[in-house]
Amino acid sequence: LGKILAVANQKGGVGKTTTTVNLAASLAILEQRVLVVDFDPQGNATSGLGIEKTALAASNYDVLCGQATMADTILASNFHKLYVLPATIDLAAAEVEMADEVKRHHLLAAVLNQYQGEPFDYTLIDCPPALGLLTLNALAAADQVLIPLQTEFYALEGLSQLISTIRRIRKHINPQLGVGGIVLTMADRRNKLSRQVEEEARNYFGKQVFQQIVPRNVRLSEAPSFGKPVLYHDVKSTGAQAYLEIARELLQRHERL
Amino acid sequence: LGKILAVANQKGGVGKTTTTVNLAASLAILEQRVLVVDFDPQGNATSGLGIEKTALAASNYDVLCGQATMADTILASNFHKLYVLPATIDLAAAEVEMADEVKRHHLLAAVLNQYQGEPFDYTLIDCPPALGLLTLNALAAADQVLIPLQTEFYALEGLSQLISTIRRIRKHINPQLGVGGIVLTMADRRNKLSRQVEEEARNYFGKQVFQQIVPRNVRLSEAPSFGKPVLYHDVKSTGAQAYLEIARELLQRHERL
Ligand SMILES: Nc1ncnc2c1ncn2[C@@H]1O[C@H](COP(=O)(O)OP(=O)(O)OP(=O)(O)O)[C@@H](O)[C@H]1O
Ligand SMILES: Nc1ncnc2c1ncn2[C@@H]1O[C@H](COP(=O)(O)OP(=O)(O)OP(=O)(O)O)[C@@H](O)[C@H]1O
Ligand SMILES: [Mg+2]
Ligand SMILES: [Mg+2]
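ok -> structure tokens follow
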């Protein structure tokens, strides 16, 4: 499954799904074979990639329960080299059902390890806005975590909670878990608060913060209503260009560019 | 505790905390005695009202565990007639500990019913971005649910899931639960997608949608960094005026104005 990246932040609405969908599409256009695992019962990444949830034969819930294999459930999206393991609301039941399992933190990792199909260069896991079992499973299965950080006061407040959770996971569940980077989202350098948050993040996290910021751009919020990554909705937009640049930075960090 | 309103939506970042804090402050300025119950472990409503979480003697977690009474834990904020039952990260542990209790959905309702202190006209409960035990407890304890709806594609997608959860709660847990209203947040009538979402919401929910929309307004995102509702940060701003108007509409719906 190549490098596995969990896109996580328990603060809601910071751009986890937007980053997962658009970074995945950008990596794919740069000739990486990419799988998006939608691990949020809201299923936003699934619909943001144009997949009709009601028409699905199986979803990741069926794979977790052993009713379907990953190879059978993965769908090719309409976009170059981009594949999806879709989510439906059923996934919400998995979080309750996992609670009693001994290996409840490693259920996703076990499923991903069994994959026998054509290899991927990258797997991106979109997480729900919580530090519950679904997000913990994603962090347990990942090589690195990508942290979308909205440049606003409440989002910054939650960051220390996320960092301590990542440390805890590294200590008890997944010693390999690294921080792949911090993506500044909905940033607006004309706004004083946004500049302050960016400055604080760069002071504290240094080079882990991607050079490229993602500005607030209406094309990014329009694209999902057409079921497309922004690259395929308006490639010249600042949103599309920002995620292409972040994809290039990521490939350089992984020495693949 | 007067009328109890749960401010809920499992979609992240739609303005739950911003609506709780600013609607509460607006109702208080209109001479209602208001309690904010922060039921999100992120504790954004607590810090948005200027309460320093690290200096707290007790929080709502202690009240749920029976280690402290509500009357002892409620704090007066710096703002007229506005009180807070604060949250810390400890509340995240409560969600795990509640799971085995027989009356796990009614733990908050039991605590609120025991309150013997000075009466409130309104109690607003800020919920986390999930439909887990914390939100279910808030819906079980509430007279009505207020739904902040961000006028964006992903937010609209999640609405049907929220509505079916409310119906389920009404059937099995809290037959009194009504819908107090839908607040359109971060709305921008110049943006086609935003107008479409507003139109769909008004067509589907009719009069339940507040007439007054909350426009995107930078003062709303700045105010929490000063620990103040926007009313006390910049009363002339469109954000402050919008929440004042929503408070008036709410009082009219409850025949208190
Ligand atoms: N840079 C941006 N510019 C404008 N709109 C954006 C941007 N990034 C995200 N959005 C919009 O903001 C909203 C929140 O983003 P998104 O849903 O990706 O966040 P999330 O962290 O995945 O939310 P949740 O916590 O619910 O999973 C969405 O409607 C999205 O379209
Ligand atoms: N009308 C608005 N105009 C501008 N910014 C806003 C507006 N409403 C909310 N915000 C900002 O958007 C972000 C998300 O809002 P908020 O935190 O209130 O949402 P939430 O639903 O409580 O999020 P969570 O799901 O994490 O609890 C915050 O940084 C907030 O300051
Ligand atoms: Mg999301
Ligand atoms: Mg909130």
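The two ends of chain B are 19 Å apart (CA to CA).
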